[in-house]
Design brief:
By secondary structure, the chain is an alpha/beta fold. It contains 10 helices and 10 strands. Bound molecules: S-adenosylmethionine (SAM). S-adenosylmethionine binds next to loops.
């Protein structure tokens, strides 16, 4: 386990993932009934963009830094920026929230947040960062066991983020297995799988696996910052979202052109379509 998310915190892929996560939580919060946010590969929860690891790559400069002072922030980014502004009250961008901190701050008193991180040091940092909030539980186990270990939940509504490091060749396949296990244990779960857009052949197999999965409906969201022809670099990233709440497609249709224009490097583009249509 060599991957450390601190090197990539706040990059274009994090921006897409975290704005989408903030909208999923907002849309689930329209109903009073509680829900549970689960994160199988949670990271440390909070990142210092001026720290050694993030400074070494500077990826955030082509990500969140491009949005921070934008005069045309869409209203749909207000929740996400609310968390960022709270972490950086002097208006200097330095601290960036990971998915655990976003889930912790954006969920309500009646909701719970269940986090899992396997790396022992990162898991301890995550515990330290989440300390004091009794709605949050941190597990230091195997992320791929999360659906079997933690589902179904008593609340009857759940959102699961699956965000592995993609260090190993079988991780796209494992995402599909985790999706199927989740749906078989709790059919209505909203499952968001993050994936890198790099190797088109591998991705083709992944899309086929998603199409054949047991998800009742599944939306594909992708943001490109380079042309996808070059398999040696990250051209963008995507989220496969099973059971997206009503309204998400419309919101993403508004957000994606803006994100593509702000985050484009050699090129900016996006795609939003259904891989599984509701029957
Ligand atoms: C992409 S990062 C997560 C970022 C986080 N979800 C966010 O958006 O802020 C992936 C994390 O998965 C952890 N990890 C790697 N293999 C794992 C496994 N098998 N089970 C659980 N966590 C794992 C890594 O240590 C890393 O912190």
């Amino acid at each position: 386990m060599n991957y450390r998310h601190a090197f990539h915190a706040g990059n274009h892929a994090d921006v897409l993932k975290h704005i989408t996560l903030s909208r999923l939580i907002a849309l689930l919060s329209r109903k009073e009934a509680p829900f549970v946010c689960l994160d199988s590969h949670a990271g440390v929860g909070l990142y210092d963009l001026k720290g050694d690891q993030a400074s070494r790559t500077g990826e955030w400069l082509e990500g969140i830094a491009r949005l921070w002072d934008a005069p045309d922030l869409p209203e749909l980014t207000a929740d996400y920026f609310g968390v960022l502004r709270a972490l950086n009250p002097d208006d200097q961008l330095r601290y960036y929230p990971g998915s655990p901190e976003l889930a912790r701050q954006l969920t309500r008193m009646q909701d719970r947040v269940l986090l899992n991180e396997k790396h022992p040091e990162d898991g301890q940092l995550l515990k330290d960062n989440m300390r004091g909030d009794r709605r949050v539980a941190v597990h230091l186990g195997e992320g791929w066991h999360v659906p079997r270990a933690l589902l179904p939940v008593a609340e009857k509504r759940a959102l699961l983020l699956i965000d592995p490091p993609f260090e190993q060749a079988d991780e796209l396949e494992r995402c599909i297995t985790a999706l199927n296990e989740t749906i078989s244990r709790m059919r209505q779960t909203v499952v968001a799988i993050w994936y890198p857009i790099k190797d088109e052949r591998q991705l083709k197999r992944f899309y086929q696996g998603l199409e054949k999965s047991s998800a009742p409906k599944l939306l594909r969201v992708e943001l490109f910052v380079h042309s996808p022809d070059d398999a040696t670099r990250l051209s963008g990233s995507g989220l496969a979202i099973a059971n997206p709440p009503w309204g998400l497609e419309d919101e993403l249709n508004q957000l994606l052109p803006w994100l593509a224009s702000k985050l484009a490097q050699s090129q900016g583009d996006w795609r939003l379509d259904w891989l599984v249509q509701e029957k």
